[in-house]
C-alpha cells in the first residue's frame, strides 16, 4: 500500500510528498479539523464502513504539534483507530466527533508505546489526532479500520508478557472493602477481589501517575466487564453506573510506568454527583448556572475582555451573554509554561467549540458563530500535573450593517 506522508506543520516550506486533501472547515471537530487531512486521501475514500481495506497516513509531527486525520463512518459499529511511532516513538491518540467531543483516547494500548482505541462509533465524521507523549518530534502512522481488517499495532494483551489483562486469579487476590483504599507496589500485589452483598453500583480507581496504572474489572467467572487507562491524567477509573449483582469480582491492575511505586486502589459506591463534577472539572460537560458549581459570570460581552487565571488540570469556568448574533473569539495564552485547552457550550449544555494547540503553538483559540443567549467557556491545563497562569481573551464581532 502507498503511504502518503503528511506533516503537522502546515506552513512548512518543504514538500514531503503529495499531500491528501484538506478538510478546510473552521468548526470541524471543535476547530482542530480545519486543516485535517483525509486518511483515505480524499473524502470519498475515507469511509471506513465501506473501504475495502484499512486507511492510513504517515505523518511527520514537529515539536509540540500534532497530526489530525479525518475519516467518516456511514454504518454505526465497532471500529479500530491506531497510531504507531517509527523507532519506538511514544504516541498519544484522540478521536473526536464532528462537534469536537472526545469519543476515544489512548496512550499505550497498542503495545510498545503505540496507541490503539477499539470503540463503537455512530455514523458521522471524525477527527483522529496523533502527537508524541513528551511533545518531541515524531514520525508515525495513523490507521482507521473495521475490526475485521488488519491491525497496525500488536495490542496490549498480545505483547505484554507480564500483563494480567484478560485473566484474574481470585486465589491470588487481596480482598478489599468498599470505601477503604489499599496501596501496594505493582510488583508486590496487582490483583484484588471485591465482594458485594447486594446489587451495587461501584466506582474503582487506581492512582499514582508514576506507575500509570490500567484497571480491568472481571466477574467471578473471569468474564471481562470493563477496562480503563488514563481517566484522570495517568490515573485510571471504572464507573459501573448500573448495579452489579451480588457476588465476588476481580480487579486486575496493570501499568505502563514504575512497578516499584505504590498504586492506591479504591472501590466505592458509585456517586452520580461526583461523576458529574468530574465531567465539569475536565470540561466535558457544562455546569448549571444556579450557583452549585463555580462559574465566573462576565456579563454581556461587548467588544473585548481580558482575564488572567491560575489554572491546573481542573477546568475554570466563565459565562458571558450575547445580545445579538455574530462571532465570538476566545483565546487562551499560556504565560510561561502551560498547555491550555478550551471548550465552549451554549446554555443548553451543547458543546459549540473545542480547541487545543492552535496556530502551531500550545495556546488555544476558539472562533464560534453565536446567536443571542448565554455561553460558557472552560479552560484547563492539558497536563493535570501543570499549574500556571493563562491569559484569557474574549472578543465579540457583529455582522457589518448596510
UniProtKB/TrEMBL annotation:
Domain of life per record: Bacteria
Keywords: Signal
Signal sequence region: 1-23
Keyword Signal listed: yes
Xref: NCBIfam families: FDP_fam
The protein's name: ABC transporter substrate-binding protein
UniProt organism field: Octadecabacter ascidiaceicola
Amino acid at each position: 500500500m502507498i503511504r502518503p506522508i503528511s506533516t503537522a506543520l502546515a506552513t512548512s516550506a518543504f514538500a514531503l510528498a503529495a499531500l491528501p486533501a484538506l478538510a478546510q472547515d473552521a468548526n470541524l471537530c471543535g476547530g482542530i479539523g480545519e486543516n485535517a487531512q483525509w486518511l483515505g486521501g480524499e473524502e470519498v475514500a475515507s469511509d471506513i464502513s465501506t473501504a475495502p481495506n484499512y486507511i492510513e497516513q504517515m505523518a511527520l509531527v514537529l515539536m509540540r504539534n500534532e497530526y489530525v486525520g479525518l475519516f467518516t463512518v456511514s454504518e454505526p459499529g465497532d471500529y479500530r483507530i491506531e497510531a504507531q511511532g517509527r523507532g519506538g516513538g511514544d504516541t498519544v491518540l484522540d478521536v473526536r466527533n464532528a462537534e469536537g467531543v472526545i469519543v476515544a483516547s489512548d496512550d499505550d494500548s497498542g503495545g510498545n508505546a503505540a496507541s490503539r482505541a477499539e470503540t463503537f462509533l455512530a455514523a458521522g465524521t471524525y477527527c483522529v489526532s496523533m502527537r508524541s507523549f513528551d511533545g518531541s518530534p515524531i514520525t508515525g502512522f495513523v490507521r482507521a479500520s473495521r475490526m475485521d481488517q488488519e491491525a497496525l499495532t500488536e495490542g496490549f494483551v498480545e505483547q505484554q508478557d507480564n500483563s494480567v489483562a484478560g485473566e484474574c486469579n481470585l486465589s491470588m487476590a487481596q480482598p478489599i472493602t468498599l470505601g477503604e483504599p489499599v496501596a501496594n507496589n505493582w510488583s508486590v500485589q496487582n490483583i484484588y477481589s471485591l465482594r458485594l452483598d447486594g446489587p451495587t453500583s461501584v466506582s474503582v480507581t487506581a492512582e499514582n501517575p508514576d506507575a500509570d496504572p490500567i484497571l480491568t474489572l472481571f466477574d467471578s467467572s473471569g468474564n471481562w466487564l470493563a477496562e480503563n487507562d488514563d481517566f484522570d491524567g495517568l490515573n485510571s477509573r471504572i464507573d459501573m453506573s448500573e448495579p452489579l449483582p451480588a457476588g465476588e469480582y476481580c480487579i486486575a491492575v496493570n501499568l505502563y510506568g514504575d512497578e516499584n511505586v505504590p498504586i492506591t486502589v479504591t472501590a466505592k459506591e458509585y456517586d452520580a454527583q461526583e461523576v458529574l463534577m468530574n465531567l465539569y472539572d475536565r470540561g466535558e460537560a457544562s455546569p448549571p448556572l444556579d450557583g452549585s458549581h463555580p462559574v465566573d459570570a462576565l456579563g454581556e460581552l461587548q467588544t473585548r475582555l481580558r482575564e488572567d487565571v491560575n489554572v491546573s488540570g481542573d477546568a475554570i469556568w466563565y459565562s458571558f451573554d450575547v445580545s445579538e448574533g455574530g462571532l465570538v473569539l476566545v483565546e487562551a495564552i499560556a504565560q510561561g509554561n502551560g498547555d491550555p485547552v478550551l471548550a465552549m457550550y451554549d446554555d443548553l449544555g451543547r458543546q459549540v467549540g473545542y480547541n487545543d494547540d492552535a496556530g502551531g503553538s500550545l495556546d488555544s483559540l476558539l472562533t464560534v458563530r453565536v446567536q443571542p443567549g448565554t455561553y460558557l467557556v472552560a479552560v484547563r491545563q492539558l497536563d493535570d500535573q501543570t499549574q500556571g497562569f493563562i491569559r484569557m481573551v474574549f472578543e465579540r464581532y457583529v455582522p457589518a450593517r448596510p
